Amino acid sequence: STQSTWGTFRLFTMLGADPESFGFGPEAGLMAQNRLDGAVQSLARKHERAQNAPPPPPERPEAPMIRDSRPPAPVEEERQPTAPEPEPEDDLEVIRRNRLRQLQNEFHEVSVGRARGHGSYREVPECDFLKEVTQSKNVVCAFFHRDFERCKILDRHLTDLAPRYLTCKFMKLDAEKAPFFVEKLGVRVLPTLVMFEDGVAKHRLIGFEELGGDEFPTRVLAQRLAVAGMLTLKDEDDDGGERGTGF
């Protein structure tokens, strides 16, 4: 081909050999010269265009990153909803509510007491004595004899007190029919009033001397029972009179 011919001719020329001795005639030399001249002119034009070309625009500097000088806003934590605070109660409302609760408790206590024999003064047989004494907190028991007049006087006062003081149980035990408990409790004089607290004999009243004699008023007996802790005096019995001081 023409390209390979031109390359071979040029090689012989660079080596100082005669191209014609190898079969390359004057036409091949002329062709090779023309191609060389054309290549030189092409390079010259490229160089001239490169010289005359306008310089490339300067590179634009990269714009600096703009940052906010303010500190980042704190991230607010999600707040859990809180229950509204209760409004302060009116003093009268508090008093009313406390009084209502007190009445409810008293009603419950009275209901339970009546079911256990409170509210009346009654005789109990010896076989039920322990059950009656232990099932109530405060129990007043009169040991009596049917033929003793003082025992009848005491019966009248206890019959009056029983329905008015429902937190205490009032009962009586025939001493002749309960020899075991008469001996166990050391009853020697009739009437003897024994006061039990949680099933335990805590106090006793023997005869009427401590109450002022046979004509003592019922309120004096109520006051004596209050001193022993058997009941809380009502207004009609709390008149400032003398009270017993012990057993």
Structure description:
The protein has 247 residues and is of the alpha/beta class. Helices cover 40% and strands 12% of the residues. Helix 1 packs across helix 2. The radius of gyration is 65 Å and the shape is rod-shaped.
Distance between the termini: 154 Å
Given as residue ranges, the uncertain stretches (5+ residues, pLDDT < 50) are: 241-247
Helicity, as a percent range: 40-55%
* Major sheet strand order: 1-3-2-4-5
How can the largest sheet be summarized? 5 strands, mixed
Order of helices and strands: HHHEHEHEHEEH
Instruction: Write down the overall mean pLDDT.
Output: 80
The secondary-structure class comes to alpha/beta
Shape, per Cα inertia axes: rod-shaped
Per DSSP, the total helix count is 7
Cα Rg: 65 Å
Strand residue percentage = 5-15%
Number of DSSP-assigned strands: 5
In short:
With 247 residues, the chain is an alpha/beta fold.
Which secondary structure elements does this structure contain, and how are they paired or packed?
Layout: H1 2-14, H2 26-52, H3 91-115, E1 121-123, H4 129-134, E2 138-144, H5 149-161, E3 169-174, H6 179-184, E4 192-197, E5 200-206, H7 218-227
Parallel strand pairs: 1-3, 2-3
Antiparallel strand pairs: 2-4, 4-5
Helix pairs in contact: 1-2
Key descriptive features of the protein:
alpha/beta, 5-stranded mixed beta sheet, 5 strands, single chain, 247 residues, 40% helix
